[in-house]
Each structure stands twice: as structure tokens, then as C-alpha cells.
Amino acid sequence: MSQEYGQLEALQVTVLLEENAGYNSSFLAQHGMSLLLEAWHGGSKPGKRTILFDTGQSAQPVLHNMQLLGKDPQDIDLIFLSHCHYDHTGGLVGILEASKRCRVPIVGHPSIYRPHFSLKPTFQSLGMSPDCSREAIEKAGGELILSADPMPLMPGAVSTGEINDRVSFEKSPTLSLQTIHEGKKVSDYMVDDSSLIFITEEGLIIITGCSHAGITSIVEAAVRLTGIEHVSALIGGFHLVDADQARISRTVQTITSMEVDNIYAGHCTGFKAEANLFMELGERFQKLHTGMTIKYQ
Question: Which domain holds residue 67?
């Protein structure tokens, strides 16, 4: 196991928001993602940290689902933003206000406030909302900690940081995205896309937002960073919803060859990719839904 980053004793992942509300439930669903990560560590100073991974596109459904699940926003110790997209960051200020806490660390990438948009089929701004300005975040009790480097969050948990070393078929995001550099429109390769790595006795648990850096590249980055080759679980969105069949097949083939124990995917993964993963992996694949709980201990 990684000596540098330590090891977790237990992890519970609760899906607070996802496109799918599950069967016969009272949960709200919405385009976007928000996960509650409750992590326990041992050592000389054992303890627990509650990490909110992304905030959906608005606070109301996240807070509604938290109430149904018996989760209190005041228990959130830290918020991690996987990338700038509105459907992962829009609920931030509302959730901070509901937490009623001061100086809640918000870990993300330093380029998270860049201009970010798509031109197809029409112009659409996809980045951080003006409602989530630095001033609004700080007024609501948040403290922005923005770094491109891997960030240790607790013993047994570290972010991937910026992932620039991407496998050949994942060099470009599946979306055609743009930003502004020196006054000119240029392609945006989503350098801010980052994931969380949890180190357990069984191996790595990797939590992704949209995997714009490519899910294969993310796994390889996590293995390089920790020195641990076995992946116990991949949990999150893989953004293959708009990928062609060749890329979907290559991704499924590569993930299968990595012998990941379990994959939980949803949000932007897309029906075709989910179907391919299920056909290849069987019961090792599960589709995410709001209210779902995944436990490791």
C-alpha cells in the first residue's frame, strides 16, 4: 500500500443526486451529480471526514435528498469540485448556506473560473455560474483552495490533480468545448478535470465526476500516483454519452483488461456505454441512482 498517502479503514458513498432517481422512490433526480463520501481512517489520530463530491446544478434537490437520507449538510467537512461544469458546481453556494459553517474548504482546479462554452448546436455557457462567484462562495462560508497538483485530503484520500498524460484514444474530450486564450477562441481540453482516489486494503476506489480526462487515463494516473495497481471500484460518470461506438468499445475493452472489481457508472456515461459495460462485466457493473449507498470496510 501507498506509504505516502496512508490508508482508509472504511468508506461509504451515498449518491445524493444523479439523472436516475431509482425505482419507486421519493428522491429527486436532475442532470448532474453530487456524492457524499464518508471516510474513516485509523492511525495515531483516528477520525472521520465527510466530503461532498460535486454539488449538482442546484442546491434544492441535493438538500431534499439529503433530508430523505438522514444526512445533515452541517456535517460536510470539505467540498471537492471535479471540474467547472454547471451541473457539478451550481448547487455550491446554496449547500454552503445550508451547512451554516465557516471556512469550509473547497478544493478544485485554478482554471475553474475560465470562460468555458460549447458552440454546438448553439452557443451555450457551460462553466461556473455567476451565482458561484468567489465573493458569493466566501460570503456563504466557503474557502477556495485551487491547485493543479494532487491534493491529499486525509489519510487514505488524495485527488489526482491535473491529468495531462492521457492515452491515445482519450487525448480529446468527447465534447467539442471552447475557451478564450489571449482574446482568441481555442479548444478547451478540460485540464481541470480531476478525480478522487481512496486507498483501502482491497485496492483503489476512484471517484469521478465526468471523466473528461478519460476514464482509462484517470485509472492510469491513480496507479502512477499511489503505486497501487489493483482497482477495487470505479464510481461516477464516464462521459461516453456522445462518444462513437469505437471509443466506447475501446474504453470497455481497456477497463475490462484492468480487472476492476466493481464499476458503478451513471450520469454522463450514456445508455450505449452502460449496456456495453453490463454485457461485458455482468454483475460487476451497476448503474448509479439517487439514494444508492456503496459501502467499503
Answer: 8-296
